[in-house]
Amino acid sequence: MLGAVLALGCAAIASEVAGELLGVCLEITARAACASLCDDDADDPPPEELDAQPAAPAEPPPPDWRPTVADCEVKRDASGVFVDCAGGTRAVFLAGTELGGADADAARLPTRYGPLELRDPGDVGRLAGTRAIDGDLAINAPALVSLTAPELQSIGGNLIVTRAPALERLALPALAAVGGTVVISDNPRLPQREAEQIVFRLTRHGFAGAVEVAGNAPP
């Protein structure tokens, strides 16, 4: 009888202990599962981030292919209008000369295609920085007193300097080629010798075109 009671008591104790152990194991398992789920949730982005699309990279602005505007400074005083450009191109006009419509896209181009006519201070920037003109260069500026263009080397068409009553100096020291005719005439204040020197320099470089140099100031 006593043995049966002891056996029953031991079984109850074992059952109770087993139940507690099972409960502990279930609790540990539940905590581990919860921790795992929580970690997974932490790695997942919030719903709004799932819907958001990655921003497309900003496109770079298109290149500015416009050439650099000629760097010319224009000054006006009682004695005249003075144009001074980078590279040495300079011009002087009579006082009171209209500045003209300077082209905002006037550029320091090594080669300029088509004719170029110089009439007022606004045109000087188109000549500055130019080494070669594909067409004619026509200087027809009644108020022009002086022009120096040390960068100009070649004119594909004609060189025409005519009817410039105030012109006293014309310096084209690098000009070595003219494809057409040279006309430097009817400029009563431009020394004839200075006009002839331009032609002589061209001749030394092989120029054999027609020449008209007359009506300028006598020596």
SSE order and pairing:
Layout: H1 2-43, H2 47-51, E1 72-77, E2 80-85, E3 90-93, E4 111-112, E5 116-118, H3 124-127, E6 132-133, E7 137-139, E8 144-148, E9 154-155, E10 159-162, E11 169-171, E12 177-178, E13 182-185, H4 192-204, E14 211-214
Parallel strand pairs: 4-6, 5-7, 6-9, 7-10, 8-11, 9-12, 10-13, 13-14
Antiparallel strand pairs: 1-2, 2-3, 3-8
Short characterization:
With 219 residues, the chain is α/β, with parallel strands linked by helices.
Distance between the termini: 158 Å
CATH topology group of the largest domain: 24 nucleotide stem-loop, u2 snrnp hairpin iv. U2 a', Chain A
Catalogue the unreliable spans. 2-8, 62-68
Topology as a string of helices (H) and strands (E): HHEEEEEHEEEEEEEEHE
CATH architecture classification of the largest domain: Alpha-Beta Horseshoe
The major pleated sheet works out as:
5 strands, mixed
Class derived from helix and strand content? alpha/beta
The number of helices is 4
Specify the helix fraction band.
25-40%
Give the strand order, joined by hyphens, for the main sheet.
1-2-3-8-11
Q: Count of DSSP E strands? A: 14
Structural domain tally: 2
Which CATH class of the largest domain?
Alpha Beta
Shape: globular
Cα radius of gyration in angstroms: 46 Å
Q: What is the arithmetic mean of pLDDT?
A: 78
Strand fraction? 15-25%
